[in-house]
Specification:
This protein is an alpha+beta fold. It folds into 2 domains: about 15-40 and about 50-160, Cathepsin B, Chain A; about 180-385, Cysteine proteinases (Cathepsin B, Chain A, Alpha-Beta Complex), CATH 3.90.70. Helix content is about 20%, strand content about 25%. Strands 7, 12, 15, 16, 17, 18, 19 and 20 form an 8-stranded mixed β-sheet that branches. Strands 6-5-11-8 form a 4-stranded antiparallel β-sheet. A 3-stranded antiparallel β-sheet has the order 23-22-24, with no helix packed on it. It is globular. Bound molecules: zinc ion (ZN). Zinc ion (ZN) binds near residues 214 and 259. The site of zinc ion has 8 residues, from loops. It comes from Paramecium tetraurelia. It catalyses: Thiol-dependent hydrolysis of ester, thioester, amide, peptide and isopeptide bonds formed by the C-terminal Gly of ubiquitin (a 76-residue protein attached to proteins as an intracellular targeting signal). Belongs to the peptidase C19 family.
Length: about 475
């Protein structure tokens, strides 16, 4: 992968946005990419990569099914194919796997998407690394695909966390429904500790409310989320499950809230609202029910839309719609089951069932079954996914200007990346002040309008320093 020259970094064409359906294959992201083009939806291609199975190493179907859905997460896979992870590995991070899981994952993904006649691949390297870092996922014992997915995404996030030194940030609660500015501040605080491709793609923000039912005192707190874990009911569809999940509910006795006014544990209720919606939405249908007395699997069919899942009514901030591209299925019972996945291939735009080494093309209508356990949706109402960069906005001078030493102009880790050839005059404003205070409302219609970055009054045009995304 060639890095952009500084000229590329400042050229207008570097922020040109194009309709995903017309997008060429040759879009190359470079290390400080600002936006990842949304290429989920594209015209069918002649080639069909990504159709390689994964060998089962003894009850590892729950891992294989999760890998295939992640592998078909187009922007994540391209990030690895373009070797961007090599520039962002954070092996010093004590929460990371020292890059071991990420490197193994990247090698596997690149093999899965290589043009090849290979029918299947042995994922032993990645699975060994997963087991090394979390012995819970021991060989020969079937585990929960959702737990594996949560662990894997968490490790990828920490391995690729662009934050080298996490500052201490105090958690804030509010006694009244917070506003947009407070939401932006909470998100910005989160980014001070967490910035990675995983945050860029998978994370959203919710606001959680607790209310004392004796004195009515309320407490609001912003949180980030990577999945919606939905309890399911019989004869309900996905939208009804989401509504039910977000409905205010009384807390049971074991989980009562300690009210700050009553200064004791009181009868209370909770409510969740979504605020910022993620680019990739993972929905976990809670089919496995565990209570003190019994465990069971709920096998009801939950109807879910393939296209235009609309979450606009559930978000305080954003209007967005989603299309389905992956499903992890669990068939069988709680104690004896099997995982497979259904994924839409970005090249052929067709659906396939991945059952370890076996892959078969399926009809769209075969995707919806009562085995569906985890659903993967991509936001279809935007044409690119933004990098969640924090503190970095710079005015960029032309490439002929002499560059001050990087260490003298930039503090923090973001620019401590070798071989960066950006021409940056100075660090001028923080995203906290500029970018994040602008409400990000996306139209319900599939607007392909470019979100132009507006220059600050009296200053040269402002770009993200990371705008060296090259579209060839
Ligand atoms: Zn109270």
């Amino acid at each position: 992968m060639g890095l952009c020259t500084s000229k590329d970094a400042v050229s207008e064409s570097s922020i040109r946005r194009v309709h995903p359906l017309n997008m060429e294959n040759s879009v190359v992201l470079t290390i400080n990419y600002a936006k990842i083009p949304n290429k989920f939806k594209r015209l069918p291609q002649n080639k069909s990569c990504g159709l390689i199975g994964l060998q089962n190493l003894g009850n590892t179907c729950y891992i294989n099914a999760a890998i295939q859905c992640l592998s078909n997460t187009q922007p994540l896979t391209e990030y690895f194919q373009q070797n961007l992870h090599n520039h962002e590995l954070n092996i010093e991070n004590p929460l990371s796997s020292r890059g071991q899981i990420t490197n193994a994952y990247a090698r596997l993904i690149c093999s899965l998407w290589k043009e090849s006649y290979q029918k299947s691949i042995n994922p032993i390297e990645l699975i060994s690394m997963i087991q090394l870092w979390n012995p819970f996922f021991v060989m020969n014992s079937q585990q929960d695909s959702h737990e594996l997915l949560a662990f894997l995404l968490d490790m990828l996030h920490e391995d690729l966390n662009r934050v080298k030194h996490k500052p201490y940030i105090e958690e804030k609660t509010y006694d009244q429904q917070p506003n947009q500015q407070q939401a932006n501040k909470a998100w910005s605080d989160y980014l001070k500790r967490n910035r990675s491709i995983i945050v860029d793609l998978f994370q959203g923000q919710s606001i959680n409310m607790l209310q004392c039912m004796v004195c009515n005192t309320k407490s609001y707190k912003f949180e980030t989320f990577m999945y919606l874990s939905l309890p399911i009911q019989q004869d309900a569809d996905l939208i009804q499950c989401i509504s039910e999940y977000l409905r205010e509910e009384e807390l049971d006795e074991a989980n009562q809230w300690h009210c700050s006014k009553c200064k004791s544990v009181k009868k209370s209720k909770k409510g969740i609202k979504l605020w910022k919606l993620p680019n990739i939405l993972v929905i976990h249908l809670k089919r496995f029910k565990f209570t003190a007395n019994y465990r069971c699997k709920l096998r009801w069919l939950i109807n879910f839309p393939m296209y235009n899942l609309d979450l606009s009514n559930y978000s305080e901030q954003e209007q967005a719609t989603y299309d389905l591209y992956g499903v992890i299925n669990h068939s069988g019972t709680l104690h004896s089951g099997h995982y497979t996945s259904n994924c839409k291939n970005k090249d052929t735009q067709k659906w396939y069932n991945f059952d370890d080494t076996r892959i078969k093309e399926i009809m769209e209508k075969e995707v919806l079954t009562s085995d569906a356990y985890l659903l993967f949706y991509y936001k279809n109402s935007v044409d690119s996914y933004e990098r969640q960069s924090e503190v970095i906005r710079s005015s960029i001078i032309n490439s002929s200007a002499s560059l001050p030493k990087q260490s003298s102009i930039i503090h923090g880790s973001y620019f401590n990346i070798p071989h960066t050839k950006l021409s940056i005059s100075k660090l001028c404003i923080s995203e906290t002040d500029q970018q994040l205070t602008t409400p990000q409302i996306f139209g319900k219609k599939k607007s392909l309008k470019t979100n132009k970055l507006t220059p600050l009054p009296g200053k040269k045009p402002i770009f993200f320093a990371s705008d060296n995304q090259k579209i060839q």
